[in-house]
Design brief:
Structural class: alpha+beta
Number of strands: 7
Radius of gyration: 18 Å
Number of helices: 6
Strand order of the largest sheet: 1-5-2
Shape: elongated
Order of helices and strands: HEHEEHEEHEHHE
Helix content: 25-40%
Number of domains: 1
Length: about 150
């Protein structure tokens, strides 16, 4: 949480120092494997009155978890004739200053890409192939609408 707090405070400084015309990008995202649940990010944002808001994963959006389950858990579920939920946790996040974006008519949609299904579905054990060849995380997609 301390690392997240540090990054968020740095992020706040970018916006507080920003002056029109100095060519500093107005649209900055923090992306990361924070290794903390989304709920803790929100807690940190409230406690320290941060301008960043964090998205992806968590109890409210279980379909946006981006960390995959361990191979052992996957194989055990398959062995028991169960269909495993291949997503384990919500430790990957996207943070940005939503108010700053909205004031400038910039709208953002952050979602995960189920790369296990998309790229490894033809494999005997898609999750294992994904973990071995790609990652134990799936990528996120950020769609930005500018007006």
């Amino acid at each position: 949480m301390n690392e997240y707090l540090l990054v968020s405070k740095l992020y706040d400084n970018i916006y507080s120092d920003r002056k029109y015309g100095n060519n500093r990008s107005a649209y900055t995202f923090i992306l990361g494997d924070y290794n903390i649940p989304l709920e803790f990010c929100h807690e940190c944002e409230l406690i320290y009155n941060l301008s960043t808001k964090t998205f992806l994963g968590g109890k409210l959006f279980p379909n946006e978890r981006t960390t995959l389950i361990k191979k052992e858990s996957y194989l055990k579920a398959i062995e028991n004739n169960e269909t495993p939920d291949i997503f384990a946790s919500d430790y990957d996040h996207c943070s940005y200053n939503i108010d700053h974006f909205i004031r400038r008519d910039v709208f953002v949609k952050v979602t995960r890409v189920n790369s296990v299904e998309k790229y490894c579905s033809n494999e005997e054990h898609p999750l294992i192939k994904h973990i071995e060849k790609l990652s134990d995380h799936v990528p996120i997609k950020i769609e930005i609408t500018l007006r």
